[in-house]
Structure formats: structure tokens, C-alpha cells
Design brief:
With 128 residues, this protein is mainly alpha-helical. 63% of the residues lie in helices and 0% in strands. α1 runs antiparallel to α2. The longest helix has 18 residues. The chain is globular, with a radius of gyration of 13 Å. The two termini are 22 Å apart. The C terminus is likely disordered.
């Protein structure tokens, strides 16, 4: 990922989803982190939380359950307040929060964890 990556929000979500689907969560984190740093103040914690979900999945993949649990719980806490009908860009806040909390719990148990995070609620929004 280039250090100066700058994508519009919908494109950032699309690229991050593509990377998550390709099991490249650290790269998805980089895309989401760039969006977080460029986001308007009102959206920053949403993007920061999304980036933390991706890096939490990275910790799951690297066998660091303690780091995964901490990051995924923090991410869910950051994202949850955005779960209104006006959620920006169609981000599936309830789905991501539920998946992050579930992954955090499974990571803490040391369970084998299939990860399937969907950033947007509908296929139409993911494919925009």
C-alpha cells in the first residue's frame, strides 16, 4: 500500500472488503487507516474502528489471541455509536459489531476462527 493512499470513502470500503475477502486483513487495515486519517471529524472513530477490526483479524491470523481480543473489543466499542439509520456509506454497523465481539470471544478461547466480515450491509452497497 502506498503511504499516500487516498481513496474516496466508498472506494476505500470496496478495496478493504476485497482485501478482507482475499484474507489480507493487514492490507485492509492500511486502506481503512488512510480513510480514517482523511475522514471528517464526525466519521473518524468509525473509520478508526474499522481499521482496528482489520488489524484485530491480523492478530487472529498471527496467533495472538490477547491482541486480537483487545483490538476487536475496542473496535466494536468505537463503531457501535454509528449504528443509526444514518450510518455513513452503508456500513453494516450492527453486523460488524456482532462479528467483532464474536471474534474477540473466540480468540480469547483459542478457538479455530473462520473470519467473514462484511463491511457493508447489502451487496449493492459493497459493489458500488
Amino acid at each position: 500500500m502506498p503511504d499516500d493512499l487516498s481513496l474516496p470513502p466508498v472506494e476505500a470500503l470496496r478495496e478493504a472488503q476485497r482485501l478482507l475477502d482475499a484474507d489480507r486483513p493487514f492490507h485492509a487495515h492500511e486502506v481503512l487507516e488512510a480513510a480514517w486519517k482523511a475522514a471528517p471529524e464526525a466519521e473518524r472513530e468509525l473509520w478508526r474502528g474499522l481499521a482496528q477490526v482489520a488489524v484485530g483479524i491480523t492478530h487472529v491470523r498471527r496467533g495472538n489471541p490477547r491482541g486480537a481480543k483487545a483490538l476487536l473489543e475496542r473496535a466494536a466499542d468505537r463503531i457501535e455509536p454509528y449504528g443509526t439509520e444514518d450510518t455513513p456509506y452503508g456500513v453494516d454497523v450492527p453486523g460488524i459489531v456482532a462479528e467483532a465481539r464474536s471474534l474477540a470471544e473466540k480468540a480469547a478461547e483459542g478457538s479455530d476462527i473462520p473470519v467473514r466480515v462484511r463491511l457493508c450491509a447489502t451487496r449493492d452497497q459493497r459493489d458500488v
